[in-house]
Amino acid sequence: MRSWAWTALGLAMAATSATAREACPPRPPVQAIVMPSTNMQSDLVTLISLGPAIADKTLQRKALLKAKPKCDEAGLEAGGATYALFETTATSPVLMARSASPDAPIFFVAPFADITAAVMAEVEKRPVPPAKASYVLGISTRTGASALRLYSSVPDNETFKADIAAALQGRLPPLVSRDERTKGIQINVQADAYEGPKSTLGATPLPGSGPGLPAVSATPQNQSFREQPDGGALHQASGFTCPGAIDGFKRDRLTVYDAAQGGRDVSCGYASSPATATATLYLTKLPAQYTLSRVFDIYVEQAKAHTPSVGDAADPYPASEGGPRRQGRFWRDKEGRNEGLWLMQIGPWFAKLRVTYSNGDAATVRRLAADLLTAIDAQVKPPTV
To answer: What is the pTM of this model?
Structure first.
């Protein structure tokens, strides 16, 4: 009874305040910024920047509950609740959607200082462009907050309402999440999101000519890889040659995630024969502020989100055995397989070897890791192009 009375009173107050304020002036339609894009390296900078953004004090739940409306938008019925939409009197957030229940999700749009363009310009040694403001759509709940979407400007009311409805229906997965209890930040975009469907041999499109998907092939392609006489694929930007076959594994694909950027983000995929183990070697060039430990933690978090851990597994090639400097983490998935990755850093290049294998493949996977990581250590030398 008290819950019903609270809801009725809240709706009545919302209706009364809405009639007392003017309607917000219309805003021009805006397109959401595509995320994930075709450039994993650039996206990683954006996603890491979003973590502190959604933790801003003005976007914490207590502040959102106290935000004052400046003008009203047309409301929304979604998720079994009535949401009042309004522009705020503050500079952040600039747009909000709240229901009468204090336990319901709160949606907000806030300015986002996206440093991605500036960072990528520094990495690529070109002039830094003028700062460009973006806006993030976020959702706040009692357990935390998430960034759902990016816009180039404050979204129009119809876009805002459509995205709220999509989020409440589970059709707008979070890009980055913040846990209110631990204060931890989780990046939810997986590396797999950048892998398009496999093409037929030799049919990979030229950089920038496809529909926004990474270029994927079983053979060397475009200017990112160059075929070698021994069957290897030379990645020209890093100097590393992905072998055609190694230690019982055969290379079955090459992927260029940033085809328009000259191959600063690529991978070489391998499968054993018989196919009981898989391995993917990622080569990614990142800005100087990214350390081995920082990137390793991000990659482990992403990998475990894709294949959740049900228990720890031993590192088949631990750093204590010598060899190139590296970090490794391994676990068991719900299918009973071993999952994990190693990460190395050589100057601006990060080499991640991601593996999935059964217990019987442990020795083979260890040999593969030792040979591939040693080859990377020998071939990739900073400074690189």
So the answer is: 0.50
